[in-house]
Design goal:
By secondary structure, the chain is of the alpha+beta class. It has helices at residues 2-19, 40-51, 58-69, 75-88, 161-175, 223-232, 235-244, 262-277, and strands at 23-26, 90-92, 102-104, 117-121, 125-126, 132-133, 137-141, 144-151, 185-189, 194-197, 246-247, 258-259. The protein has a domain at 2-37 and 117-277: tt1808, chain A (Alpha-Beta Complex), CATH 3.90.1570. The protein is globular.
């Protein structure tokens, strides 16, 4: 019964993502080497679609992918570099030096519909010392694993949402660190408690996303699972959170990465719209 409930939770979350028009794929159906954490076909397709009008070649696409795959340093340093690469893009020098360089954006933040959004479960990853791990859910944008989700059933005795946190930040960090190079944030859920936070944060800094819209009533419990998927994972909102609401300090001796809470997201956007409305020449 307990296993059924964990599986049922996983599948109900997949359904919520499908409602937000993510493509749901079972990881077993994806042909790849198990140590590969990128969905290379999605990444190639996105880059081709995005830059075909610039005449991007297959060789240039592979150069861009090589850039994304070959990020070095500690996991924190790699994540910080990858985050800046995803947000700011990168200049691709052309194979033909007569042609103008292309500024490559691995995610199109301006036009959400131009990206490939997938939610994948049962995605087996071969990591350090051939360890096999299967995260419960991964959100891919253009083949890049930006969110990892871990579920524990609230029905099952002796497991808590804290176990989901430890699974991600201790076991997965040790066994499949490659997956978290590109990570924006992680999600932990037992169906009743649903929280998200930075992969590098302590459990105390994980929070629920309790509203879909800024003027909605705050919801808890099982409803907070719905408000999280509809409120945080709506495509244009997820892109906004990734681009503008994640903070790495320029210099720190700690692995510090901060992800906004939902009241901050709504307050900043209200303030921003208010400032725009009052700008000169129309405003004061």
């Amino acid at each position: 019964m307990a296993n059924f409930n964990e599986h049922a939770l996983e599948m109900s979350i997949m359904e919520l993502f499908k409602d937000e028009e993510y493509v749901h794929v079972n990881g077993r159906q994806i042909h790849r080497h198990k140590s590969e954490v990128l969905l290379l076909e999605d990444l190639r397709q996105y880059l081709y679609d995005q830059y075909s009008s610039d005449g991007i070649t297959s060789g240039e696409i592979e150069t861009a992918i090589f850039m994304l795959r070959n990020i070095s340093g500690t996991l924190y340093e790699a994540n910080k570099f990858a985050y800046r690469l995803l947000c700011n893009g990168w200049t691709l020098e052309r194979e033909d030096s007569e042609q103008k360089d292309i500024h490559i954006r691995f995610i199109n933040f301006d036009e959400p519909k131009k990206n490939i959004f997938k939610i994948v479960n049962q995605f087996e990853i071969e990591g350090v010392d051939n360890q096999l791990r299967i995260p419960d859910g991964i959100v891919f944008i253009n083949g890049i694993p930006v969110i990892v989700l871990e579920f524990k059933s609230a029905v099952q005795e002796n497991t808590t949402i804290m176990d989901a946190y430890k699974q991600l930040t201790v076991r997965y960090r040790r066994d499949i660190p490659e997956l978290f190079r590109y990570n924006a944030f992680v999600v932990i859920s037992d169906g009743v408690n649903n929280k998200y936070g930075s992969f590098f944060s302590s459990y105390d800094f994980f929070y629920a996303w309790r509203k879909v819209g800024s003027d909605d009533k705050e919801l808890d419990g099982i409803n907070s699972l719905v408000t999280m998927v509809k409120g945080l994972f709506r495509k244009e909102r997820l892109l906004a959170v990734i681009k503008d609401f994640i903070y790495f300090p320029d210099n720190t001796d700690k692995d510090l990465k901060i992800v906004c809470r939902y009241p901050q997201f709504f307050a900043v956007n209200k303030l921003y719209e208010n400032i725009k409305a009052h700008m000169r020449p129309e405003g004061e």
